[in-house]
Structures are given as C-alpha cells and as structure tokens.
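S.,

As promised, the magnesium ion run. Input:
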Amino acid sequence: MITAVCLNPAIDRTVSVAALVPGGLNRVTASRSDAGGKGVNVAVTLARLGEEAACVAFLPRENGRLVEEKLRAEGVEGAGVALDGAIRTNLKVLDESKREITEINESGAPVSEAQLADMAALIERYAEKSDCLVLSGSLPPGCPASYYRDIMERIAPLPCRVVLDADAARLREGLKAKPFLIKPNRHELTELTGQPLDTLADIAKAARALVEDGVGLAAVSMGGEGALIVSREGALFAPRMEVTPRSTVGAGDAMIAGLVAGLHRGLPLKDTFCLGVACASASVMSEGTGLIDRATVDALLPRVQILPVT
Ligand SMILES: Nc1ncnc2c1ncn2[C@@H]1O[C@H](COP(=O)(O)OP(=O)(O)OP(=O)(O)O)[C@@H](O)[C@H]1O
Ligand SMILES: [Mg+2]
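Predicted complex:
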C-alpha cells in the first residue's frame, strides 16, 4: 500500500473570468470546487492508476467530511485526526484571455501540539503497513517546519520509503532526514540552493548535489519546460509534451503519483520517469486540480520523450 499524508487539506475553488481586472468588478463565467489538498490528490491519482492507496489527513469538523467522501468515492482508504474549524479555501482565478491563473490561498485551521502528536502516531501506524509514504504540501498554522523531518526520523527504522514534496524551510529541514524521492519545481529548487538556475545544466548540477548528499532520487519539474530526474546512475530529461494546457494546478502532484506508482511496480528508472511525465501531462490537459484518468495516461505514455543529460 502507498499512503499519502495531507496535513493542510483545502477546497480548491477555480473560477474563470474573461479578463481579470484587479481593483475592478470581475464576473465569473464558470466555477468548480474540488475538495483536496496535495496529499489527497496524490492518493486519488494513485488509486486511479490502479494502486492500493490510503490518505491520512487532518479533518476539520465543519466540512472535513468533504475530503472523506471524496476519498471513499475514489476507493482510497481514509484516516484522520479531527480539528476544530473548517477546511481552508484556495481560490484559483483563471483569466481566460491570457490563460493565466492567479492563486489566493488561505492558511488553514490551526493545530495543537496534542493534535500533532496524534497525527504523528497515526502516520507511523500507516507507515508500518505501507511500502511508501508521501509527505506533500504545506503545513497548517501551529505545525513546525521540522514536522516532516521529525516524521521521517520517527519512521526511519521501517522499510517504508519516503517521498517529500515540500518547499522552503519544510524542504530544507526534511532533506536532513534523507528522503528517498523529492520533486521540487524549479522555483523550489532555486530557493533551496539560493543560486539562479538558468540552464538545464545548472538544474541538473543542483539535483546531483542533492543526490550526493543522500537523497535517493531528485526529480525537478520545470512547468512548461519539462522535467529532469537524477539518480546515482545518471540524469534524464523529458521535454514538455505537446498537450493542450487547461490547468497546470496539481501537475506536480500527478507527476509524484506517477513516479511513486512506477517505483512501486519495480519499473526501471526510465519507465518510472515516463509514467511520472505522462501523468503530469494528463493532469495539465484536465480542468481544475487535474485529476487524471488512466486511459489518457496510457495514450500519452508512448509519446513521452526521454533524453540523457550529460
Ligand atoms: N504548460 C505545460 N505544458 C506541458 N506540460 C506541462 C506544463 N506545465 C507543467 N507540465 C508538466 O507537469 C510537470 C509538473 O509541473 P510543474 O513544474 O508546474 O509542477 P508543480 O509546480 O510542482 O505543480 P503543483 O505543485 O501545482 O502540482 C512538468 O514537469 C511537465 O512535465
Ligand atoms: Mg508542486
């Protein structure tokens, strides 16, 4: 089983406007709401790929059932720690004239030390029965930036592999516990290294340094410029696939689900990377937070191009 952790669930509300006017009245032409958060999206995508998936989440009492209902509907085993308050809303405003998304994210319901301790114990229980644990997304108010690292250190004796998708201090701290796989996007990697990463060679060098420091695999997503993966054996680059972008939100989460599914199936690195790229590209083609269907992924797979990076 693969377990994804969602500590800061969200309702992703996407609204479309013809052309966004800051400071003016904007009329919504279409809208949709997806209950989720990164961990939920990873778990649901894994289930859609045919993997046995679970999701452990903080569940605010007011509307946490929206997440539980979604997990149930997708065949994902759900478990949670209850919180006071409501799930935060992440508003995505799609400017149709520019095909550009402006994101306005709430921080979420605060958590107490007791709730964090309950959550850590729950995650450990799931890690005991999982081959892989995915820690992804932001942390709720009250949760220290070292929380992902603390979890990794706590479950280090278990055979469960850990995937970390986090940014800034959460990523920097988490790296100290040497996750098996990380997938920063270009911005997150730049922030981590503190250096401008202008070329593919710069990005590959930064990713190699992380692998030398003990990360098993470093995948770097570069939005519309493709993606890179580095292991001890070498580096591979996948140029952007020619797909019609509808919403790039969640493309990174889909890539993680594809990579994790490939690793879980024991595929060679190249095929694992192909699956990650096909999932990300399928996600870009779909509206909203980009949950994918398996048929689209299967159709894209033979078209993924993988090139060695020297
Ligand atoms: N415009 C695009 N056209 C084609 N493919 C894209 C495009 N944007 C993203 N992708 C694919 O999706 C992958 C992940 O995208 P990106 O780097 O934006 O992830 P991210 O910033 O982690 O996203 P999120 O955190 O919202 O899930 C890219 O490496 C690429 O394969
Ligand atoms: Mg991301």
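The mean pLDDT is 96. The pocket of adenosine-5'-triphosphate (ligand 1) is lined by residues 185, 221-224, 226-227, 240-241, 243, 245, 248-253, 255, 277, 280-281, 284 (CB under 6 Å).

- D.
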